[in-house]
Amino acid sequence: MAFIFVSNLVEMNLYEKLLLDNKKWAAAQLEKDPGYFERLVHLQTPEVLWIGCSDSRVPANQITGTEPGEIFVHRNVANLVINTDVNLLSVLDFAVNHLKVKHVIVCGHYGCGGVNAAMTKKDFKPVLNMWLRSIKDVYRLHRQELDEIKNHLQRSDRLVELNVKEQVFNLAKTSIIQTAWQDEYRPDLHGWVYSLKNGIIKPVFEMQAGTELDPLYKYDDL
Ligand code: CO
Fold first, then answer.
1. Residue 110 included in any domain
2. Which of 37, 64, 197, 210 has the least CB density, counted as fewest CB within 10 Å?
3. What's the whole-model pTM score?
4. Does the annotation mark 107 as catalytic?
């Protein structure tokens, strides 16, 4: 029982530390800029929607040097755009149709645990298997190119890039994006990959607003 008590205590300390650090942060913000919170309360006009990986090492604001209020963020395991994901689609709808963002960025990262997991045959149990399955589909679409890469790390890096590209295609397949392209000629779609090793983002794919789509996915009665 003593062990449980100690482990609870450690947990308490961590969450208390987060609240304490929050107070310090708020005070420091006010000291730097007394109008900071007052301004943000009345302002949410981000021009960018960020769809990133949930990985704790890839925080959108920090790695792009942006402030609260500048980027609208959605994150999930391996930055996937799944056409039945109500959470993702609600964020996309709100960002595109209400916030009127000019850019949607899908940002993956090399060494992504979700991508690496999808490259194995390991059973991660139903829910994760279901989620990771769409990365296996990306692999299948690009199997020839990927199978030719013998080095496992390089193959994983390339799959991360191809995954980002496919997620950008998935965005363009939605009627949300197609309607915005038709009516307002925005947003541009970007596929980026972040390197955990040097902190640099590599742009790997881009679709300007209005890019011609595969007719299979194009709606003509929007
Ligand atoms: Co990841």
1. yes
2. 197
3. 0.91
4. no
